[in-house]
Design goal:
Multidrug-efflux Transporter Regulator, Chain: A, Domain 2, 264 residues, Globin-like, elongated, 13 helices, three-stranded antiparallel β-sheet
């Protein structure tokens, strides 16, 4: 019979690169209770305990509070395989974004060095070079706030599911599509078009369908609600105004609402 392998707390601390104090704390709050004790009273951790510890550490890395991790692990319906698969998707997406952000920072460094060397000015940058500066940045602005406000909705869950599966090429396709929509809308705004004119409504409908295709089902009423949110939040408005200048956000929001009435 194979002897069961166990580890003392100091060994676990070295193995998992956590402090002994953290392990004692996890034990005290019922998050990770070792399966046994030695004759001398030392905590003894089994392989199953270490698998649970790994789940805890990954959860912490993903920003989950300890109490939420404990509730999930102790849930009678907890599926460890599904949990690990979910963590893998989340970490893979984080790695994808991090790799993109590294490329973006490298692009910014190259641009600054070129300017410092006197070979060019920032005005010489092409659109493709500017686009590279934002490679890897999450297109869902203020994700933490969005999760807090709508994390319990099916729309948010569906968006998270789809986003976890997209490749870099697919994200590039989405960004190009979104850029084209907003650029066209801004051109209409600067050209003096009314937000109620057919061309403005048509581009707003393209925007609604883009959200529907890339993130979650977006009926007309939801698109109108998004318009209200964009107009009310200065941070979102700043991103929109970057395309058309001052006044573009209320124009664009109104076009979204007018189209919602037309579609609805």
């Amino acid at each position: 019979m194979t002897k069961r392998v166990t580890y003392q707390v100091s060994e676990v601390a070295r193995l998992a690169n956590v402090s002994v104090r953290a392990l004692h704390h996890y034990d005290a709050i019922g998050l990770l209770t070792p399966s046994g004790r030695s004759q001398a009273g030392y905590r003894l951790y089994t392989a199953e305990d270490l698998l649970r510890l790994q789940q805890i550490l990954v959860g912490r890395e993903l920003g989950l509070p300890l109490e939420q991790i404990r509730r999930a692990l102790d849930d009678p319906d907890f599926d460890p395989v599904a949990a690990i698969e979910s963590q893998l998707r989340a970490l893979t997406e984080r790695a994808r974004r991090t790799a993109g952000m590294i490329r973006a920072v490298e692009a910014a460094l190259a641009a600054r060095r070129a300017v410092a060397g006197g070979g060019r000015t920032m005005k010489d940058m092409t659109h493709d070079e500017i686009t590279e500066l934002f490679d890897g940045f999450d297109p869902t602005a203020h994700e933490g706030e969005v999760r807090d406000r709508w994390g319990g909705t099916e729309a948010y869950r569906e968006s998270a599911r789809r986003m976890s599966r997209y490749t870099k090429a697919e994200w590039e396709s989405y960004k190009a599509e979104a850029h084209a929509i907003m650029t066209e809308a801004a051109a209409l705004f600067r050209g003096g078009a009314s937000a109620a004119d057919a061309p403005a409504l048509d581009v707003a409908e393209r925007h609604r369908r883009s959200i529907d295709r890339w993130f979650y089902d977006c009926p007309a009423a939801m698109h109108a609600a998004l318009a209200d949110m964009v107009e009310a939040d200065a941070r979102f408005a700043k991103n929109v105004d970057a395309y058309g200048g001052p006044g573009f956000t209320p124009w664009w929001s109104e076009a979204m609402r007018q189209n919602a009435r037309r579609v609805g």
